[in-house]
């Protein structure tokens, strides 16, 4: 569960990225976050991950109050969240396999489990042939899918995807969102940031529109192809 | 943490030594040079100290006794002197023995001795070796307070000179070693800081997917440690080779050194274990501390 209570973020250069945002996303929900560039979508996600700190207000994520959380507990918080970063953030010195496996190593998962889980997740995003490649040997879309595989691999309670279809052709985009929908159907909360109007229209569901650091719209839309 | 995870992290650290070989080589060189400088300084100091203690051990205080002391008094005095803290050894040197030795040293002077007769004109004495030459003055004062003492003779000026050399060498080498140690740490942590800085993104990403600081640090720690140990082994090899060659060259002038009272330099064999362990240990420590210090800043996300 993610809850924002009157949250504002002002960056050190004076930019107000979020103004008094209040928002609640329940366990098991699927929500699109849309809005123009610079609206504060990535800032919202960075807040959840405690990559940036709020200037005022309160953020609660999966039971952690981010204002009160101790430094040593931050890794615990992050392990409950799978994130597809807008800039991918793959480790350049690791292969696709190692990038994905790393998340499991961090949580001290058994070797055997890692060996079966990682190839499975990589095949889910259609990159079976690329397991031994380094990120620099992949296209933008492929890197994005590795990032998605990494977000899924430890079966987190919450998946956040910042433009996971930004570099992917429309055909594949639908597949990716469908994958996220399927994961959501198994009980995982999913937050997806996107620019692609047609995806939102196609799938429908809760849609939150950010503009200039404020929520201007938050409703459940009927999709063209609701499942 | 599971054994398999530990293995993985250690493996990563060892692998990173090669993956980041350019930076590894830089820290390797810095540690190597530092170890060589400190190591040679220590070997030099050890040789000087050995030379000084060699002289110290030959250095004796002679205590002359009054004429006509009884054997009982002599043995009582011997035990008393032995009880003094700074006394390592006491040997009684009888007046007859002294006279014999004296006669021997003066060949071709039989006539002079004939006129003296068989009775020794020299006093009985104790020959004393002290443990610490720098405390000799107070030891002499203690002996002087005893009864039946005729005179205490000690090569005081020489002792002072030795004490001077010893403390100067000690001071200089301590200062140089301390200064080098600090310089090393600064250079090493800068060298590794550059390497860690190049990998700051990697460190950040690891943190964002939930890795703890320890988890991220272990490979860095291992990497620094391995690099330092390699430098230690290389330094030991170079020191071995260099030291033997150096001693060999100096030994060609052995008569010259003997004139200064140096009969032998410390053979490398006798210190090889200490040198190797010291180098490898110090190298590992410097490497590990250097890298771990430099990761600190990037872990705070
Ligand atoms: N680290 C930062 N320091 C200063 N200002 C920032 C920083 N990150 C973002 N901003 C500013 O905050 C505002 C919101 O940025 P944010 O990245 O949240 O936008 P966004 O909605 O994700 O945009 P996009 O769709 O282009 O990704 C922008 O005006 C941006 O310039
Ligand atoms: Mg963004």
Which cofactor or ligand species appear? adenosine-5'-triphosphate, magnesium ion
Q: Structural class per helix/strand content of chain B?
A: alpha+beta
β-strand number of chain A: 10
- Put simply, the count of helices of chain A is 7
CATH-assigned homologous superfamily of the largest domain in chain A: P-loop containing nucleotide triphosphate hydrolases
Properties at a glance:
heterodimer, A: 227 residues, alpha/beta, Rossmann fold, 2 domains, six-stranded mixed beta sheet, 7 helices, 10 strands, B: alpha+beta, Alpha-Beta Plaits, four-stranded antiparallel beta sheet, 11 helices, elongated, binds adenosine-5'-triphosphate, binds magnesium ion
Structure description:
The complex is a heterodimer of chains A (227) and B (301). By secondary structure, chain A is of the alpha/beta class. Chain A has 2 domains: 151 residues, Rossmann fold (3-Layer(aba) Sandwich), CATH 3.40.50.300; 66 residues, no CATH class. Helix content of chain A is 33%, strand content 27%. In chain A, the strands form 2 sheets. Chain A has a 6-stranded mixed beta sheet with strand order 6-7-8-3-9-10, sandwiched between helices. A 4-stranded antiparallel beta sheet of chain A has the order 2-1-4-5, covered by helices on one side. In chain A, β7, α6 and β8 form a beta-alpha-beta unit. The longest helix of chain A is centred in the last third of the chain and has 16 residues. Chain B is an alpha+beta fold. Chain B is built from 11 helices and 4 strands, in the order ααβαβααβαβααααα. The longest helix of chain B has 43 residues. The two termini of chain B are 22 Å apart. At the A-B interface, α2 and α3 of A face α1 and α8 of B. Magnesium ion binds next to α1 of chain A.
